[in-house]
Structures are given as C-alpha cells and as structure tokens.
Amino acid sequence: MKTSTRFVALFFGVLLFVSAISAQENNSTSTGLAPTPPMGWNSWNKFACNVSEDMIKGMADSVVKSGMKDAGYQYVNIDDCWQVSRDSNGNIVPDPQRFPHGMKAVGDYIHSLGLKFGVYSDAGSKTCAGRPGGLGHEYQDALQYAAWGVDYLKYDWCNTTTQDAKASYANIRAALDASGRAIVLSICEWGTAKPWLWGKEVGGNLWRTTGDISDKWEGSAKWPDGSCCSNGMLAIVDQQIGLASYAGPGHWNDPDMLEVGNSGMSDIEYRSHFSLWAILEAPLIAGNDLRNMRPEIHDILTNKEVIAVDQDALGREGERVSKKGNAEVWAKQLQVGSRAVVLLNRGSTEQEITVNWEDLGYPNRLGASVRDLWQHKDLGKFTGKFSATVGSHAVVMVTIKL
Ligand code: GLA
C-alpha cells in the first residue's frame, strides 16, 4: 500500500472506531432520562405496606385533579409490598388481593391520565419489608417491568449481605436497558457506599444520600436493630453539605421523599422543607395522601415559583453559603444568571437574616431585584445585601436578579 493510501485507510479506521464508540454511548435506552429532578408521588411515607390498586388509582386521579400534574408532578410510584412471592418460573408475583387486575392494569390506568408509573424492588434477596428481592432475577424482572409499562424503578439495599453496591446497581441498570424500555433508576442505598461517587457512572438517575426521612423537624434516631438512622428533615439537610458538585442533569442527589402534609410538622416547617428541597435541586416526590389535602398543603406542593427553582434547567444544586448560629443562607445559581436564595431560621425565636451579594458571587456595589417566592411579590431593588425578618423554623425564599 502506498503511504497516502495507508494514511487514508488509517483515517477512516479511526473515524469508524470513534463513531462506533459514540453510537454505543448514545444507544442506551436510558440516555436523556431525568434532565431535571423527577417529580411525582410515592406510597411509602404515608401508607407503608398498605398499598392497593384502588388507592394507587385514586392517588393518580388526585395528581391530575389537584393541579399537581400541571405543576410538573409526573410519576406515581408504588413502594414496597406490592409483591408477595415468585412463581415456579421465578417470575415476581404481585399481591392478588391488593392488585386483583395485576400491575399492567395499574400502569395502563396511570398512563391513561398522562402520568408515569413507578415500582420498587431491592438489590438483595428480600426487600426491606421482607418481600422477594431482585437478586439473581434482575434481567427477568426488568423484562417484566417493561411489559407492565414501568417508567421508574426505586431499587433498595436491604438484605444485600456482602454484595458490592456499585456492581449491583450497574447490573440492574444493564438489565433495565436490555429490556428496551427507558426506565429511570432510583438508587436507594442510603449513602452508605457514597453513591454520589459512582451513581452517574453506573447509570443511576438519582441516589439517596442518607437514611430514611421521618416526619419531624430535626434530630435523628437509630432503628430498633441499632443501625443508623431515621432522620428529621434538618438532619437530612445537614448531610447534603459537600455533595452539590456530584449532581447535574440526569443524575441527582436524593435527600429522600417529601413529608409535606403528613402531619408531623407545622405548615411553616413544611414550607421550609419544600423550599430546601427546591434549593437542593432534589427530586420532589410527594408522600402524603393527595386525596384529601388541606388547601395549605396543596399550596405548598404546587407553588410554581418554588418548583421552577427546583426544576431549573441549569441543574446546579444549591449550597449553604453562610451560617451564623441558627441563621443559614442557602443559594443556588439559576439558568438565567440569577440566584435563588433561602434564608432559614432553625431557631425558636424570630430573627433577621441577611444575604450579602458577595456570598452569591455578585459585586457589592450592584443593585439587584428581589422577588419573594412565597408571597409572590416583587420586593424592589437592593444594593449589596438583602435582609428579612424570618420567623421560628421558617424560611424567606427569594430570587435575586442583577
Ligand atoms: C427502605 C427505604 C424506604 C422504603 C422502605 C420500604 O427503608 O429507604 O424509602 O422504600 O425501605 O421497605
């Protein structure tokens, strides 16, 4: 071969190789899932094992009727306890009493409302509630989920003994992709093996960063078996420090599902909970009974200005930029170049909290427009800083735009 011919052959060889690699990368059915943090509803926080076809359909109806669908909520997710056994072929068997028409019927109903369908399983031999887990059945289960029309799988970490977390979640992602259906993978490993370090690489779309949330303002308590921990809302928030850089479009830190409306906190505290989840660009998965929400709870869950902060297309998770005792300032960069800010009062008495422009990376001498996202009101122009009086356990949430 002449040198020039050899060169041309080499050139096209390299071109083919590069395009084969990029085709492989783009081929995954899961590419492009969860460009913003998933929004939806999940059964666990309110109903635990008390799930049924009727209840789930009622909840899907309420997502539409309440205006939550219009506000961006999409997924209706059944957590633990829908499954009871495996048949002689190893197929997972849904509870025939609670789901008399099977899981596809539930998925079809959810889809008929323009919503998406989620289920739960576990990487180990059994789920946390002792139902059959996915271990050894990953590909079989993934095909089954795809046949039912599942769009979202939460995959838990109970009864995994010596399993390697990264390998286990890579395995279920490969199985989901092999099913041919685009399925969001929610890694529920509680942060033990630092999933923020490998979750994106294995194709996880979100990963829990902590143990379970409980419906209280603060504090954290060990489970009855001595393992750690059931966390109050602020205990979860504190565990997000330092994790912001791991999140981005398609791969999110998950500080667990919302407790808004479950009665363990005041409405003021639930407003703080929702605002902090939005500034953290967290998945917004409601966990209350949507069929009979008080108007105050409805107004928190459907505040479109706060949701817009959470769903901002830049995908930049917010961070705590200052802390003075019980007064904290959390800030997040938005796509349009402005900032969203939460002034959080963790204390038991009202206090003034200030955000300085320099905490936001803005020059002090510049004036910026401030808008209150809970009062839905423009507050005017401020130079160098903005201060507000914040009630006990409350937040003031604003956008600040140069
Ligand atoms: C674990 C998870 C929870 C829930 C339960 C179900 O505790 O972290 O979110 O899914 O299991 O048993």
Structure explained in plain terms:
By secondary structure, this protein is of the alpha/beta class. 30% of the residues lie in helices and 24% in strands. The chain contains twelve helices and 20 strands. The protein has helices spanning 3-27, 44-47, 53-65, 68-71, 102-112, 138-148, 165-178, 233-238, 267-279, 295-301, 304-310, 357-360, and strands at 39-42, 75-77, 83-86, 92-94, 116-122, 152-156, 184-187, 206-208, 220-221, 230-231, 252-254, 284-286, 319-324, 327-333, 339-345, 351-356, 367-372, 377-383, 385-390, 395-401. The strands form five sheets. An eight-stranded parallel sheet has the order 11-8-7-6-5-2-1-12. Strand 9 and strand 10 (230-231) form a beta hairpin. The longest helix is centred in the N-terminal third of the chain and has 25 residues, at 3-27. Bound molecules: alpha-D-galactopyranose.
- Tally of helical runs: 12
Distinct ligands, ions and cofactors found in the model: alpha-D-galactopyranose
Helix content: 25-40%
Low-confidence stretches: 7-27
Structure class? alpha/beta
Q: What is the CA-atom radius of gyration, in angstroms?
A: 23 Å
Task: Note the main sheet.
Answer: 8 strands, parallel
Shape: globular
Which percent band covers the strand fraction?
A: 15-25%
